[in-house]
Amino acid sequence: MTSQKQKMLAGELYIADDPELAADNRRISAWMDRYNRTGTLSQPERQALLAEAFARVGEGCNIRPPFFCDYGYNISLGRGVFLNFNCCILDVVQVTIGDMTQIGPGVQILTADHPRDPGQRRQLLEFGRPIVIGSNVWIGGGATILPGVTIGDDAIVGAGSVVTRDVPAGGIAVGNPARLRAVG
């Protein structure tokens, strides 16, 4: 029998208030309570805390508190990743952020999605679609990255943009919904 957690990690429909997932969420909530009180700690001290919760944390990563996530164990950060204040990652499935990517304050990275069928929503079913953010990407403050999006290396996402589709390497996406802007 497949557990709700196994279904979640596979991107299948699952029930979010499952006891195993609720326990995982309580664990990360306690971790966030600790992490979000670390404003006076050095970057290396905060990085050690990140390594407790995340799947992978590259050297020189810096997330300025407060920071929020669903589980933590689905987040992989490359070397030198920076997230400014008040970022939120709903990591019901994999979120991968490449080396030297910079993410502005208040950015939301959302892998969690919900069925379009109202009957399935009434059953409290949801699913996730992974997000991949390449290396040397710059995401402006207040941007929202929606489920299933891939942002290529060296891309830029404008402040306040809502990214609903993939952004190619070197692309510039702005607006709501975000549209590619011509470079040059």
TrEMBL record:
One of its GO terms (cellular component) is cytosol. GO terms for molecular function: acetyltransferase activity; O-acyltransferase activity. SUPFAM superfamilies: Trimeric LpxA-like enzymes. Keywords: Acyltransferase, Nodulation, Repeat, Transferase. The keyword Acetylation does not apply. Gene3D superfamilies: Hexapeptide repeat proteins. InterPro entries: Hexapep (IPR001451), Hexapep_transf_CS (IPR018357), Hexapeptide_acetyltransf (IPR051159), Mac_dom (IPR024688), Trimer_LpxA-like_sf (IPR011004). Signal peptide: none annotated. CDD domains: LbH_MAT_GAT (cd03357). Residues 5-59 form the Maltose/galactoside acetyltransferase domain. PROSITE patterns: HEXAPEP_TRANSFERASES. Acetyltransferase implicated in the O-acetylation of Nod factors. Belongs to the transferase hexapeptide repeat family. This is Nodulation protein L. It comes from Methylobacterium terrae.
